[in-house]
Specification:
heterodimer; A: about 425 residues; mainly alpha; Formate dehydrogenase/DMSO reductase fold; two-stranded antiparallel ribbon; B: about 55 residues; 1 helix
Chain lengths: ~425, ~55
């Protein structure tokens, strides 16, 4: 193979031609997204279906969803470096890569959403210190810096780069103090995950999202952080499973997968209990105090019914949590995969309702439900990060030692 | 962002927000500086570093 010298020792990869073909297929999707992105930048946000009802739309949902799903990086780092779960060293590289993709995607989407990305620095220079979104911007940018720092040693461990003395020592030194970076990442993640939830919870003019809370923080602040820590590892496990299916190889041992699934399951179980309590209190106390019945939020429209609440809490929370906290459930590959898929869908539904159903539900007595359909440009720019993520994973899987157990699990004759 | 910006006020909000930002940036900055400087020193010493160093 033309690139044989770059491929890690002890592993086998497909031919270079097949690799390029794969890149070309995903690259075509990427180009479609880039075209839509350029339309948004050059022609403006009139390319979207956002309007006076929907200042937040598909992009913000995608942002919140990828940030929650990317939470696997900070929580896995927290577990490995700060609580000593050493088995996770076999999946932490991939968790960092997935986190890096998720957070860079979130920043990319925001760069499109702001409409005028050349002025993105205003949020730092002229910071509005009374806005939760300012805190989100600060923590998101800093945490992306942390993920970049965690990703660099992995790049430097490429067979050829690692031969360069400076890179070899730099990667070693970064590993030595990685716990410091991981702790900083956990601190930053706690606040930006929370503040994203806080943005919905403080909307006292939107009774669907409004929540009471503790001091300045609505309960959604804590629920968002908790859910990111619970559901993020599931996304890491899901992408690992997809990678194993595509490569046709076992890449991580079952004991590692089961440990992460177990921790995720217990986090999810405690989260979903808190979420159910929050929902009951909101339905029986908070919403009525604002003049609404809970049924008002789930009727008289073509899309949002009680099904979405049941899908989020029961099928996206209770069921996967029960499967993952049960030894028989998480040891059964099919049941575990089902739980992981349901969990990922569940957290995406949660972010969807907190952004889009919040905007759709009528507030005034003369209001009607305002449903929204994204334009193709919005869809294409939301698919763009998926294609970008797939390409980055393909390149990293081919050239970097992401899975330390791969050579042992797949010996070359 | 800086005390010399015209809109800066020495109040609790600015100190908490900007304090948090600069605290995080300082940790990352000092951490990376230490890694880079030590890598240069190690390289100049010609220290092989003991072989492969990974996450594992």
């Amino acid at each position: 193979m033309i690139d044989a010298a770059l491929i890690p020792n002890g592993v086998k990869r497909c031919s270079f031609g097949k690799f390029l073909l794969g890149l070309a297929v995903v690259g075509a999707v990427l180009l479609w997204g880039v075209y839509a992105m350029l339309l948004c930048w050059f022609k403006g946000l009139n390319q979207t279906n956002m309007n006076d009802y929907y200042g937040f739309a598909l992009w913000i949902w995608a942002d919140l969803a990828v940030i929650a799903l990317g939470g696997g990086a900070f929580f896995s780092g927290f577990l490995k470096y700060l609580t000593g779960k050493d088995e996770l060293k076999n999946i932490i590289n991939y968790a960092v890569l997935i986190g890096f993709i998720c957070y860079s995607s979130a920043l990319l989407i925001l760069a499109i959403d702001v409409g005028q990305p050349l002025r993105s620095w205003f949020i730092f220079w002229h910071a509005n210190v009374h806005s939760m979104l300012t805190e989100v911007a600060f923590c998101l940018s800093c945490y992306f810096g942390v993920l970049t720092i965690e990703f660099i040693p992995l790049i430097l461990e490429n067979r050829q780069l690692n031969k360069i003395s400076f890179f070899h020592h730099l990667a070693h030194n970064m590993h030595e103090i990685m716990a410091v970076f991981a702790a900083t990442g956990a601190f930053l993640s706690f606040f930006h995950q929370g503040s994203l939830g806080g943005v919905s919870g403080v909307l006292f003019g939107r009774p669907f999202a409004y929540r009471e809370g503790l001091f300045i923080w609505p309960w959604t602040f804590f629920l968002f952080t908790w859910s990111a820590a619970a559901y993020g590892p599931c996304f890491t496990l899901l992408i690992t499973k997809i990678t194993e299916l595509i490569s046709g190889k076992k890449l991580v041992k079952d004991n590692v997968i089961e440990l992460l699934a177990k921790i995720s399951g217990w986090m999810m179980a405690t989260y979903i209990v808190a979420k159910i309590i929050d929902t009951i209190y909101w339905a029986t106390v908070t919403a009525p105090s604002k003049g609404f019945l809970v049924s008002d939020f789930y009727s008289n429209n073509a899309f949002y019914g009680m099904w979405i609440l049941i899908a989020e809490i029961l099928f996206g929370g209770v069921v996967p949590a029960l499967i993952l906290i049960t030894p028989a459930g998480r040891k059964n590959p099919k049941a575990r995969t089902l739980a992981i898929v349901l969990a990922v869908i569940g957290v995406c539904i949660n972010r969807w309702v907190m952004v889009l159903q919040t905007m759709a539900a009528p507030v005034m007595s003369f209001d009607r439900w305002a449903l929204y359909y994204p334009s193709w440009q919005e869809v294409a720019t939301t698919v763009l990060p998926v294609a970008y993520g797939a390409i980055l994973i393909m390149i990293c899987y081919r050239y970097l030692p992401i899975f330390p157990q791969e050579p042992e699990l797949n010996p070359i004759d | 962002m800086f005390p010399f910006n015209f809109e800066w006020i020495w109040d609790m909000s600015h100190m908490v927000f900007m304090g948090g930002l600069w605290y995080a940036l300082t940790i990352l900055g000092i951490g990376m500086t230490w890694c880079i400087v030590k890598a240069i020193i190690d390289m100049k010493k010609g220290d092989a570093g003991g072989g492969h160093h990974g996450h594992h």
